[in-house]
Amino acid sequence: MTDVREQLRKLVREVRHRAYVPYSKHPEAVVLLLSDGSWIPGVRVESASFSLTILPLQNAWTTAVALNRRDVVAVAFSQPPDAGVRAFLEELKLSLLDVSTDLFASQASELPALREPLVPFLDQMPGSSLEGIQLAREVAARALAPYSRFPVGCLLQLENGRCIPGVNVEHPDWTRTLCAERNALGTAISYGIAPSTWRTLFLSCVNDVRGTPCGACRQLLAEHRSDLSVWMDRGLENPPELMRVDLLLLGFFVLQ
Length: 256
What we know:
about 30% helix, 10 strands, five-stranded antiparallel sheet, five-stranded mixed sheet, alpha+beta
């Protein structure tokens, strides 16, 4: 386990620079190790609306859920987690124990050998808005929404056609719940995928054909790519609706 532990610490140091921290100037990161040795990065993503900041563990965990992988066997932190982060980890019920101040792992004596990072993309690449919406509907089945029973799915499509999935991931502390759009955004940043390469977002609120991004998601999207096109599902009987992020949130703000 010692070698894997040191490798995880090295990975955390390597991905920490991807954090978006223009306000605190304090980058933070985590790495989730999965049962097959693949791993998922998560970094701190700050917002001009400070309360909307995405924490590294929250970022990585929601990525795991969207990629349909919850088989986490270890979590490495770039700094010792505080009480709030520890509470968040406990609520995930992953059966992880303290190994050291910056590492939690399963009870197994050996951790799997490290492999490549988990690929954050879907296999499919939609060629039209209807195909994108259909895929977003399918992705919504991965949502973790035991409290609201309101699954949401989205795809953040890049210029090369590849798509990052996002789903809403709820938490008993609702302030730690993350919507599908911010989930996909956080994944992109954690994997070092620049906003300049983002092309389109497809969104499906499968239980409400009137669904649109919430204010929190509009703010985060506007801070990173205000001209991003958003296709919104309007049900099987109607074509999807298209609108740019800056028109979804008129007068959005950033801190200089």
